[in-house]
Protein 1
Amino acid sequence: MAEAHPVGFQWVMEAKARGATVIHVDPRFTRTSAVADLHVPFRAGADIAFLGGLIHHVLENELDFREYVTTFTNAASLVGEDFLDTEDLAGVFSGYNHETGRYDPISWQMDGAYAAPAAGQRDHWESELREERARFTSDTAGGAGDQAYAPADPERDDTLQHPRCVYQVLKRHYARYTPEAVSQVCGMSVEQFLTVADAITKNSGRERTTAWVYSVGWTHHSVGVQYIRAAAILQTLLGNMGRPGGGILALRGHASIQGSTDVPTLYDLLPGYIPMPNAHLHSDLQSFLDADAAKTGFWGHMDAYLISLLKAWWGDAATADNDFAFDYLPRLTGNHGTYGIVRDQIDRKTFGYFVVGENPAIGHANGKMQRLGLANLEWLVVRDMQMIETATFWRDGPEIETGELRTEDIGTEVFYLPCANHTEKSGTFTNTQRLLQWRREAVHPPGDARSELHFYYHLGRKIREKLAGSTDERDRPLLDLTWDYPTFGVHSEPDPESVLAEINGFDADGNHLSSYTQMKADGSTSGGCWIYTGVYRDGVNQADRRKPGSEQDWVASEWGWAWPANRRTLYNRASADADGRPWSERKAYVWWDEEAGRWTGHDIPDFEAGKPPSYRPPEGATHEDALSGTDAFIMQADGKAWLYAPTGLADGPMPTHYEPVESPVANMLHAEQDNPAREDIVRAWNRLNPSMSDTYPYVFLTYRLTEHHTAGGMSRFLPYLAELQPEFFCEVSPALAQERNLEHLGWATLISARTAIEARVVVTERMKPLRIGDNVVHQIGLPYHWGSNGLSRGDPANDLLGVVMDPNVHIQESKVATCDIQPGRRPRGPALLEFVESYRRKAGVEPGGIT
Amino acid sequence: MGARTWLGEWPMFRQATGPDPLGRGAAVQSPRTKALEARTRDADEVVKSVCPYCAVGCGQNIYVRDGRITQVEGDPDSPVSRGRLCPKGSASTSLVTSPTRVTTVRYRRPYGTEWEDLDLDTAVDMIADRVIDARRRGWQDTDDEGRVLRRTLGFSSLGGATLDNEENYLIKKLFMALGAIQVENQARI
Ligand code: SF4
């Protein structure tokens, strides 16, 4: 955190100054470790073993915050009799199909109830379509509420003793994650593990809370979603969710990466985490809502959220008679994630590509795959500020050097359009804590540079002009689209506040909505992203509120605007006990004011303001009325935090340790080596290193430096930053340096089944060899910022990586893989290909290639 | 010039006798450094902004003079950052005034070996034509079993997590209306 989110880290240091213990669990010793109370080095890719060990420790010693657990979680619910655990089935759960490599989750359900998840695979439980669905790739992963078919109450045992209750199921699942096992798998000592276990359990409960902070070190794995699930289970058991100083904090890496998921430029989502419709399941609006909208909890209003969105997009053309133009939405049939798109580019199944403020030739796993995709396009639009490698692959990419591609043979037509920077346009970023902050335009963009708002608005305008008068049915959505934003200035810049106001939404009289609770399913309201409704309340740009922090309390709720409803901590009803009293004075945050008959506190309650703790839903209640006064997790169909997830996940209801797909060691916890449900792309340009291979014996991990930003487009071109970190390097331990004759500040070549790259060697005690079972595992650290352009140049670390993916979110495993390392520079030209091929031959890997 | 004044201009004397014994401030000022003014002093305007790098979202003050950015500083008002910026945020001035920034359209024709010039309007017009063409060729009305798809796989979009919400919104809205489902972002990466 001190490295990649330095200014955010000031709050950790502030907490430390007030007595907090800071523990850093990371394969590398970094600037964070340097100021932490404890640094625990461990093996990349072993996090579920570690977190599972902590869960085991909590359950085995009954250290959970019992009152919180029985009030707010599904610990007491009984799992159905058909469920079989990894303990019963040698490392896989029931429902695994060995032929397809996929799970059918029907056996994971709770006793007597179909529950559906608030995120992830939303359609699992659509019974009449289940069979059909099983034949197709799931493609609504990542969506929010699959709260369909909310249950009749599942069977419960509030004593938590029933062998099938979640608490006991969890306990059995993690029984083998003992401190000794964790030590073996992770390479930390039993004492180190117990020190951490002790610190977090002692620091949780009524009086204290513990926070977990992670970044892509958790998401970039073939089991990435289950990493986060494991943390969620632990934090829920310890009573650390929805409370001040608690939570699981995802530190996101870009100015508005949170915004990019909220208002998603992602294939599987509509704004506000509404899933994209699926051709196999959703023939019309009703079947979509039946499958995806919950009956209970706030996802019960998905109809109002979706219809308001359709009204925002298609205005008067969206009527009750035409399902509010639901049919205008294109349908998914499978995975259209970025790696599948690039595969299709290489296969010439897709022809054009817009790359906007992104440098995939350097910044994405398996750079060769990315560049081959670019080279097989008909046209490419790159919008950036500097001449990044994605724009110049055709003249100076690594494949030109090796002779795999020739400039004269590359048919890609490239449009490089300069873009405006953050000071040359107004608009909102959503930061990592869901805070929307408005930036004001300071100067005009120079020359041909324009904002994305300008480019896409005018591109859409031109396309609509060219198709005007078309009677083709497929052009209706385009011609009926609401696409007339007021513009200003010499370049006819669209007014960004008018777009923000559309996102916020309007009522039937054209007034700005102030809350998503005002949205209606009858077509009388509009709003482009329901979770952002309120950001333009009263016609005021709430994201531009700038009351100085020094004039506010510690919640600072008058700076910017946080979604939803300006709540700063989600699910904060859980900061009070069943009766609505703060768990302790020290940790008071939101509580029930009996006299006023309202929830109140330091933050805006994430709960219906007037629903008393004593509320119990009447028979047959729906939506939020079906949740009781203690159901704090209001987006869940049952209002509970799920320790066990009966649905929503593609790879199991509970996190299980699987080795990274490329690992130097065998899985010591389960018979299954790696995630049995992972996604692969088996192609010559994406060969994988076999695990436990002498040819690729070392682990490497990629990371960022404070002084550079992702693929370098905003840092390698700037003199200060290029000077601060001038060269690509690899970090190795003195022991590995000795083993491979690597010289400090000399050159090293790193080799995988994809390619070989060279880097300066930094020999440092910060990297520690680890004992894993009977093996010594060496880890190599690689910052991934470099490429061939800019002031500071070097080989891209991402070229070393292959692509294997988490099955839930189709994110690649780029935080751990294997390689060899040798002293000296890499071969140049065609000799590089032969060099890499010789390694593949030695390892028994099939030949590489570009098709 | 009296001896006192002369002595008073001697840094060593000031350091030894003044309130700056470590010689880090007033004691070591020369007439030239004394006359220097921060670029932030003579700005016409200070515009409120947010750092474009990581997701902490530190506040920035943009100092503008004569329509040009002269300096970017941390915004002390921000409860997120309290005026601080890290090395990246502090380098924002060089980001927005970079001499290597490309400010004109560059065009590489198929099989071309060099960049060429192209007028911006022409470029956007050409792109619009290519979108319409790729959309048509990648169009799918239904799948093999007759289920409605109403989409195109002819082109796709990637990026970028430094785009504004308003910009992402227009991208998604336009692509959905075009039937183009292949919209992706750094958020997947
Ligand atoms: S100044 Fe540094 S920590 Fe703050 S938002 Fe910018 S990059 Fe992130």
Note: Chain B has three domains: 3-34, 45-97, 106-188.
Protein 2
Amino acid sequence: MDLPRLETILSRYEGESADLIPVLQDIQDAYSYLPKEELHVVSERLQVPLTQIYSVATFFKMFSLIPKGKHQIKVCTGTTCHLKGSHRVAESLSHRLGVEVGYTTKDMQFSLDTVGCLGSCAQAPVMMVDDKYFGRTTVDKVPKILKLYK
Amino acid sequence: MPRFESIDHLREYRRQLMAKRDANQPQVLVCAGPGCLPMGSEEVAAAFREELEKNGLAAKVVLKECGCHGLCAGAVRVLIRPQEITYQHVTSEDVPEIVEKTLKEGQVVDRLVYEDLHTQEKAAYKKDIPFFKGQMPIVLRKLDIIDPTSLDDYLALGGYRGLRKALMEMKPDDIIDAIDHSGLRGRGGGGFPTGRKWRICQEVEDEPKFIICNGDEGDPGAFMDRAVMEGDPHAVLEGMIIGAFAIGASKGYIYVRHEYPLAVSRLQLAIEQARESGFLGKNILRSGFDFDIKISRGAGAFVCGEETALIHSMEGNIGEPSPRPPYPAQSGLFGKPTVINNVETWANVPEIINLGADWFANIGTEKSKGTKVFSLVGAVNQTGLVEVPMGTTLRQIVYDLGGGLRQDREFKAVQTGGPSGGCIPAQFLDLPVDYDSLQSVGSIMGSGGMIVMDTSSCMVDVARYFINFLYQESCGKCTPCREGLKQILFILDEIIHGRGQEEHLGLMEELCNAMSAASICGLGKSAVNPIRSTIKYFREEYLAHIRDKKCHALVCRPLLKYTVDPETCTGCLACVRECPVGAISGKKKMAQEIDQELCVKCGLCYEACQFEAVKIE
Amino acid sequence: MVWKISDETAYDTLGDEVRLTINGVTIRAPQDQSLLVTARQNGFEIPTLCYHRDLPSEGQCRLCVVEIGEHPRTQIVNSCTYPTQAGLVVQTHSETVVQSRRIVLELLLARTPKAKLIQELAAAHGVYESRFKTDDPEELCILCGLCVRTCREVVGVSAISMKGRTPDKQVATPFMEKSSACIGCGSCAFVCPTNVIPYTEKDGIRTIWGRDFELQACNVCGNYIAPKYQLEHWAKITGDPVETFCVCRDCR
Ligand SMILES: Cc1cc2nc3c(=O)[nH]c(=O)nc-3n(C[C@H](O)[C@H](O)[C@H](O)COP(=O)(O)O)c2cc1C
Ligand code: SF4
Ligand code: SF4
Ligand code: SF4
Ligand code: FES
Ligand code: FES
Ligand code: FES
């Protein structure tokens, strides 16, 4: 376990049980998942039962108990994007990356997920890679976008 | 930025600020709002920076990256002031020409201006474009002209004047009276009278009290809260500080969904600026009032927009709602009285205090006052954010502002209120939009998403889409919502697969009645709206799927058949490369054929074909 | 203000008596006591699945719903958390209430077709078979949360919780592994209305949640009392030596 890394995260908070979700978010951002051993430490430090951590980690979509890829691809399946055929973008990505939606490529480069509205509905269909938004993504744009990250 | 020691100090600072500013100084305002950002705002802004530098104009021309300019369909938009010339579809390649022609020579670049789709008439100035003419911006007023990272910009436009007035001239009760009088109702969904909520909380004898700004904005199709948080963050803060002073709260939180990283950083910066200048923290503007704000990020759960679920997740728990009472205003965060309002609600507060309750109460309809921001998206020509007085009709919004439907297709429905809203058919286009009228036709205001659908949308598919969304987002706590959504989804799947029966419609209605009566929270209670409204207004479409096994809109995959037209097919093999199951075969440069047994009806071939040789029936 | 819904166990801490009507009958009851308890104390039957008098109510099952208010401004609320208030007009068996309960039971019957309690309760409400689809005919858990609340609130260890959301929600130990917090007391299994939680006792070993617990025999009569681990846990929280707990109730 990388204790110093975890300590840096924990040191940003006051150690109250209400800090649980922000702490888990920081761990998720730093490690790309929630490692089990780290969660045990969090449980002790914040005085939060492990059961509560486990239910939080399995309730919210941003958390993952298994490692995610280097790049997070999120395809919007919000209403507008759905009506504009975003499922085809998701399928094309899935086909090209060789992973199902919700999974990570074997080389750990990409995780593919769908999300509800990204708030750029005027440019539907929209996808996001890490923190960058791409608008009007049609199936033929998919390989070009992927190339930027390969 | 100084720390304001008194109200007079603030007033003096603003006077100096205004004296320094030249209203005629040329300004280039690049839209970096939610609609333009994915289309390359950053590149356009960078190109301007470089080009201005190159032309020695960097000191003379002000360049800003702003919030949403409203008409997102024209992304990336650029506004040139003081003339108020608005350019659309700007790319970095267009920048040298704009600098040369507009900034140096004062001329308009014709090819970048708005053009009326029907009359082909061009309009370069904001005031001449119908989309902007029909609006009444209050919440969106500053979005296209201020730099959201600059407190000076906010102050120059009268920012924190409402707070100044609240602290100097008003007592907490006066503020609540004013909000009550103004008729402001919550913009996050339910439309609960804001003043009444504040009063309930103020009267509870318990300390400390909390204020929460709900920026979870989970409704797909809605992005006004994102635009406001990113484009005018201080307005949200100012509203919250005024509210806190009124109810006696010492701490505030802004709950932002984690898919909005820019909103988080803009708010964070604004909070730091406000602390530095004495608008937040101890002894605000030397009034003796202490208040501070912290940001909480959501973790990906739609149901956390519901107030009790939101509070539970802020306490470190899963986002399961709990039955009310107690209401948060009585017992909310950490069991303490808590006022929770939506982003747009908070952003309205400073102006109401500043301009007076009567001014606000004069706008809108009898029971819904003020304006509402809608995100107008879907099959309309001019997608974007519009702010209109309550009571504006759907037709005005869709046709006058939205410019009608794309490719002049036929209007089918407008969906309001997000997944918990309903689909409103053409017969209600002249409905004046407010909280009560939308409810009367089986929909809700929700947060203001307005998704226009044309005849290419299948209403059974739309209903299934929303039910599937809600099914996945149901917290699973209570029986009717958790199990009911699953069963409705199952029934809709049967219908979409051509296995539906007419009794299914009645069964779904029975489920809806139980869900709306007995679910704990609004998610389960209003999940019935998409079903009820589509069954009521689009029954024939259900029957076409059930009786004739046909989806006339060509959307429901299992009822479709993909074929290649041998006449048009060039044999380019684009479809073959895209097909995930290898169902397409044929020689290169020859017509291809789809094996119907293998085809999974994903439609990738249809989209890949550049020659429209793939046909759907 | 601290908001607390009280029930029978805390009767003496209740507020003033108030007057309200249930099914047209005027009754008096302590303010803020849950409507469910008020109704039951006065002989009005309301079915429940997730209510337990020793546990805080969370309102999962929705069987206890009642209609409050007067036509046309009525509202459906769950009586297990709704406070008794002066002047309330309550109907425990209105048309909407009865219909909602039937659908809820029909939905549960589709979820857990083999759960005896659900079969019986559904039949008592005139539901003999479900028109809805069953995914897993072996499913027994109705997600009432009684086990989780018991372990957290009564046992005080919180060894199990809900995992996930939607109908896939399930009761689980952290990471679905043997839980080090579990003391093997079996309370969760006892409280479960549909007997889902697997629990065996054989040759002095109790097995629950995948963990084996050695049982302590009574120092006097030799009958098994409870898992040694549980007694050690008691000793730890009470500060008494563990031996005090090694004599069964009958022999004490
Ligand atoms: C399932 C569900 C989701 C909701 N999502 C939001 C949301 O994203 N933003 C919001 O402001 N209110 C949302 N609400 C409404 C809130 O519960 C609450 O009523 C609102 O934030 C109060 O603020 P207002 O009075 O200013 O509208 C949601 C409600 C439900 C039932
Ligand atoms: S209605 Fe749905 S989302 Fe709301 S508490 Fe019940 S299960 Fe959860
Ligand atoms: S047996 Fe374990 S899980 Fe069950 S109540 Fe006892 S401690 Fe909790
Ligand atoms: S295991 Fe039993 S007690 Fe626990 S939630 Fe399921 S049905 Fe309820
Ligand atoms: S629906 Fe995709 S960005 Fe809003
Ligand atoms: S985001 Fe640029 S116009 Fe809306
Ligand atoms: S007993 Fe009240 S909801 Fe279950």
Note: The radius of gyration of chain B is 26 Å.
